[in-house]
Amino acid sequence: MILMGEIGGNDYNHAFSSGRSIEEIQSFVPPVINAIALAINELIEFGAVTLMVPGNLPIGCLPMYLSTFMSSTKEDYDPETGCLIWLNEFAEYHNEMLRIELSRIQEVHPHVTIIYADYYNAAMRFYRSPSNYGFTGATLTACCGEGGPYNFNSSIKCGFHSLNICHDPSSYVNWDGVHLTEAAYRWISNGLLEGPFTIPPIKTSCVSDL
């Protein structure tokens, strides 16, 4: 099985950090999806028969974005998680377009198994109920960083000697404002391998390929 990388994430990150409008960034989604499709088709031509393709994470929950787009409007935030609603809606839009394209590719290549990895909902579990997954430190605050309510400063990133690092990274969801901690990724992996966050289910898909 081939696990595809998270193609497009840095394109979106750069666009958001450059101050592009949400409408303009949404127009980037089709070419990003097309790039993913081209990569999948090329791998199929090389002989790949089982591919797992991940969707976007809930970026509205990342300290980087929460710091950059901090809002005084209460309605901008999900009351359950504290994440920015409009950014998570963008991630869901990307994921919806990706799933449509994956279905199209699957129809063209019925002998290939294409698995959608639902990173978004696998992650939302611990944003909604962090204590159930051992996250007693913080869900929206970076473990390694400095400044502001989310412990993130784009000018002083993790790696500087003077930065504060949380005592127990495994109790935090986010590592440096952009990337999740190993503990968070472990729960996402568990949700993919053992839980309901792959379409079709990974166990069924892999057994059928034997």
From TrEMBL:
The keyword Cytoplasm does not apply. GO terms for molecular function: hydrolase activity, acting on ester bonds. Belongs to the 'GDSL' lipolytic enzyme family. The lineage of its organism: Eukaryota, Viridiplantae, Streptophyta, Embryophyta, Tracheophyta. The keyword Glycoprotein applies. Keywords: Glycoprotein. InterPro entries: GDSL, SGNH_hydro_sf. It holds the Pfam family Lipase_GDSL. Coiled coil: none annotated. This is GDSL esterase/lipase. It comes from Actinidia chinensis var. chinensis.
